[in-house]
Design a protein that fits this description.
The longest helix has 15 residues. Strands 2-3-1-4 form a four-stranded antiparallel beta sheet, covered by helices on one side. With 177 residues, the protein is of the alpha+beta class. This is Glycine cleavage system protein R.
Length: 177
């Protein structure tokens, strides 16, 4: 089996996921893992698939047809065998939650603080929404981060709390379950 990571983007419309799933299945592949989202009328996804080695080339050749058929641009990158293995990644997992008045640079400052501590962002979801009673726009984010072995959670918390005060946001950091 060969493992590929697919990235897909296109204008949202019914049938995009089923068309991609059919292409995987038609080539004897298995849909292993995925993250799919809709933002501003665009569908985007990242999908890990396993394909029989003898059918992988046919699958890769079929991907451009998805753009012509349903408007879904799909790129495939081979996954490294060590990255495709199941199991939890090494390191301490934390969930970061942030809520505050929206302003430019928030994501940059938070992610730079995480990077300075050696953290890896496994997932990040953010949005803006109207504050209650006409209080402007709020920015809300939740991230799952992983600290490398030997990095103390308290140091990460300290780095984040310093910028939380500067950004005037509520920031929580909790261990993953």
């Amino acid at each position: 089996m060969l493992t590929y990571v697919l990235t897909a983007i296109g204008d949202d419309r019914p049938g995009l996921v089923s068309t991609l799933a059919a292409a995987v299945d038609d080539h004897g592949g298995s849909w292993v893992d995925s993250q799919l989202a809709l933002l501003a009328g665009k569908f985007a996804g990242i999908v890990r698939v396993d394909l029989p080695e003898e059918r992988a080339a046919g699958f890769l050749d079929a991907l451009p047809g998805l753009a012509a058929g349903v408007g879904l641009q799909v790129e495939a990158a081979p996954a490294h065998p060590e990255d495709a293995a199941d199991g939890a990644p090494a390191g301490t997992g934390l969930v970061l939650s942030l809520l505050g008045q929206d302003r430019t640079g928030m994501v940059r400052e938070v992610t730079e603080a995480l990077h300075s501590q050696g953290a890896t962002i496994d997932s990040l979801r953010s949005l803006t929404r109207e504050a209650p009673e006409g209080g402007g726009m709020l920015f809300e984010a939740e991230a799952v981060v992983r600290l490398p072995e030997g990095v103390d959670e308290s140091e990460v918390r300290e780095a984040l709390e310093a910028i939380a005060a500067e950004l005037m946001v509520d920031l929580d950091l909790d261990a993953t379950a």
